Amino acid sequence: MSDPSTLLFEHLEKLGIKTTTQTHAPLFTVEDSQNLRGDLPGLHSKNLFVKDKKGALWLVVAEENTQIRMNHLHKSLGCARLSFGKPDLLIETLGVKPGSVTPFALINDQGRVVNLALDAKLANGEKLNFHPLRNDQTTTIQAKDLLRFIASLGYEAKIINFEDELDAT
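-> structure tokens emitted (169 positions)
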């Protein structure tokens, strides 16, 4: 089987975006990542693939320590109530398995059916770290370059300040 990150890295290279990638043991959770990543500088994320009651799909990308209240998230997104998307739907739309969810997976969303919500901490950060479509590597990218990558795919990220969202509830 070919490396799922090849297309991603080719696309980033065409955009002139520089990244660095480290290989490590497979990571499945934020806790795994925190325990095993060592001293990898930059912000790290948690990525939630969710579906609202009307069928709209969302990829919610937040800084790893951000509190997300699932019962209020739909209000921030302006959609119907949310539940986690099934693994089969994740694979079908974003081409990745649970544990490998990342904003880079938007490159696999051929129908452009997934909406993107991005934590303001990440959008305004400097160095960001994500799995490059596989959970045994971590790729570091500048925040401005992540936003350029997202735009190159035809997406507009909905930027959410989750801290403000918590204060408002």
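The chain has a mean pLDDT of 90.
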